[in-house]
């Protein structure tokens, strides 16, 4: 037996001992729907085997809860916290990390300027950094300590660009901290940023501020309550939204979005 972090509801998390076999069954069920790419869906057993090889847990009880992952040819150890739901690795983050890695040709992050909003433990930012992106990982001030620890521990001397950790409170001082004139992001990454909180207006404002005409948003969302689900409709008033993958068993949808009304450049004719 070992220590594993379990989140109960959006704001309560407890640490309880559970059996490895139970973890294996839960994880297997979680990832059966993780099939991406244009070459068709992989067999469930292939996906399960592939993902299971990338996730590991501490062999012994430790005073801090952590999980391990194998992404982008690296071993990643993520320290979690029991007192804040923002410091837990949620399933949406796994969905987004797996997508980034398995679609690295179509969504090439090398030398791209990337920002993650609501980075939490930093897993998605770490994977994007290991894939070659210049990453800014952001979250609330009370989460920056653990976020900085995870990012530094897993990226130092391992990445082409050392990622930055920066405070971002949605909707607050956006122009001051991320001026439109000088901040240009190729990608905005977001995993499970829509949940039971009173800052959905500020979240939409933040997406709008950070997104340029050519910025691509990759957003993994877990559907919960109707109020939060309505955010998608509001989001679509500003952005063109495309479903990349859908996982009904997890209530998670992976979206790609770009700003509405952007100028679409048509390829010019070649004159010979």
Verbal overview:
The protein is an alpha/beta fold. It contains 8 helices and 12 strands. 29% of the residues lie in helices and 26% in strands. The strands form 3 sheets. The protein has a 7-stranded mixed sheet, sandwiched between helices. It has a 3-stranded antiparallel sheet with strand order 3-4-5. Strands 1-2 form a two-stranded antiparallel ribbon. It starts with a strand and ends in a 13-residue tail after the last strand.
Quick structural summary:
The protein has 272 residues and is of the alpha/beta class.
The count of strands amounts to 12
Shape: globular
**Secondary-structure element pattern, one letter each:** EEHHEEEHEHEHEHEHEHEE
Strand adjacency order, main sheet? 8-7-6-9-10-12-11
Helical stretch tally:
8
Detail the topology: elements first, then pairings:
Blueprint (H helix, E strand, L loop, with lengths): L1 E7 L3 E7 L1 H12 L12 H9 L2 E2 L9 E6 L2 E6 L11 H12 L10 E5 L5 H8 L3 E6 L4 H12 L8 E4 L6 H4 L9 E5 L8 H11 L5 E7 L3 H10 L3 E9 L4 E8 L13
Features:
272 residues; alpha/beta; 3-stranded antiparallel beta sheet; disordered C terminus
């Amino acid at each position: 037996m070992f220590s594993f972090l379990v989140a109960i509801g959006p704001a309560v998390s407890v640490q309880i001992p559970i059996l490895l076999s139970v973890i294996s069954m839960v994880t297997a069920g979680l990832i059966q729907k993780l099939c991406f790419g244009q070459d068709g869906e992989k067999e469930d057993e292939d996906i399960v085997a592939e993902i299971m090889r990338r996730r590991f847990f501490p062999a012994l009880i430790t005073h801090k809860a952590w999980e391990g992952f194998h992404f982008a040819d690296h071993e990643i150890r993520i320290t979690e916290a029991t007192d804040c739901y923002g410091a837990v690795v949620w399933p949406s983050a796994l969905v987004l990390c797996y997508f980034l890695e398995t679609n690295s040709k179509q969504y090439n992050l090398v030398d791209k300027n990337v920002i993650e909003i609501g980075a939490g433990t930093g897993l998605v930012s770490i994977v994007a950094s290991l894939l070659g992106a210049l990453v800014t990982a952001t979250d609330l001030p009370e989460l920056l300590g653990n976020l900085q620890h995870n990012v530094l521990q897993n990226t130092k001397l391992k990445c082409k660009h050392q990622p930055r950790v920066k405070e971002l409170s949605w909707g607050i001082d956006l122009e001051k901290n991320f001026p439109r004139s000088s901040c240009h992001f190729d990608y905005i990454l977001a995993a499970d940023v829509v949940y039971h909180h009173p800052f959905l207006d500020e979240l939409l404002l933040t997406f709008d501020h950070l997104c340029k005409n050519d910025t691509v948003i990759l957003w993994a969302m877990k559907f919960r309550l109707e109020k939060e689900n309505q955010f998608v409709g509001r989001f679509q008033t500003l952005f063109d939204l495309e479903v990349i993958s859908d996982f009904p068993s997890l209530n998670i949808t992976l979206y790609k979005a770009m700003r509405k009304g952007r100028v679409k450049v048509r390829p010019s004719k070649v004159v010979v």
